[in-house]
Design brief:
- It is a multi-pass membrane protein.
- The chain is mostly helical.
- It has one domain.
- It has a two-stranded antiparallel ribbon. Strands 2-3 form a two-stranded antiparallel sheet.
Amino acid sequence: MPWLEQLQTSPAMLWLVLLLAVLLPLPASYHPLTFFRFFAQKLAQKVNPDPKRSISQLRLSGTLALLLALLPFLALLYTSNWLMAWPELYQLLLLYLCLDFAAIRQRIIRLQQALKAQQLNLARDLASRVLLRQTRSLSSLGLSKAGIESLWLQFAQVWLNTLFWYLLGGIWLAVAVRLLLILQQEWSIKLSHNRHFGAPASWLARYLLWPGYWLCFLLVCIRLRCRESFRQLQRAPKSTFNLAQSACLASACASLGCRLGGPAVYEAERKTVRDKLATDYPEPDPRHLQKALQAQQQVLHLVLLLIGMGVAAWYLLFWYH
C-alpha cells in the first residue's frame, strides 16, 4: 500500500510536516492553491459564459471543466515526482501545501476580534473574504453563526479530510480531493449561475468529504462532549444538510452550546432556507465564535497527539524487531 511505504521511510517527517502546516503556514498570497483558485475562476468564465443554456449542456460543460482542471495539474505533479531526487520529501511538501487551513483560521480570528470590538462594518468586510453568502446585512449574531459554521466545516474539509485520504490512498489521492474541494467552492451551486454547471464537482465532493465530517464528529466526541453530540445529531433535520454535515455541525453545537443553521442569503434576490440545528440552545454571539476557535484548536491538538503516538509506536515496533 502506498501510504505504508511512505510511513516506512519517513514517519517522523510526516508528523513534522503536520506541525509545520500548523505553526509555519505559507501566506495565501504566495500559496500555489491561490493560483489554482484563480485558474478555476477563469476556466468557469470561459466554459460557462451563458448560464441560460440547457441543463444537459451546463452539466456537460461542468464535467469537461472538472476534468480539464484536475487531470493536467495531477499529471504535472505526478511527472515532477519522477524528476525529484527525493520523491518522498516532494510528496510531503505537497501534503504541507494541501493543509492550508491556517489562513482560513486567521481570517476567522480577525472576524472575531472585529465583532468583539463592535466594529460591525469591518466584520462584514472580513466575513466577505471567508464566506460565500452576502454579508452586507448580517448582524453580529449572523456573522458569529456564519463564522462558526465556516470554521468548523472548513477544518473538517481542508485538514481532516485531506489527512484521511492521504493516509488511506497516498499523496495523489489527497491532492486530487483537495483540488476537487477548491473547484466545488469556486463553482458553488449555491449561486444561481453555477447551479447546473457546478453540479458534477459538487456531487463528487459531496461524497469524498464525508470522512472529514465524520472524523470531526468523532474527535469532538473523544475530546469534548460525546453524549450531547449524539443527541444533537439525532435531533438534526436531514432535509438541508446531508448526514455527514449534520454530524459535523451537531458536534459544534454540542461543544459550543449554541444553535446553528437557519436562512442564508447567497445572492441579493435569493434566500436559501436551511434547517436549524440545536434549537434548544441560544443563538450564538462573538463569545461563541471565540469558543469555537478554542475548541477547533483542541481538536487539532488531539489529532497531532494521536498521530504522534502512532509515530512513536511505529518506532518502538521497528526497534523491537
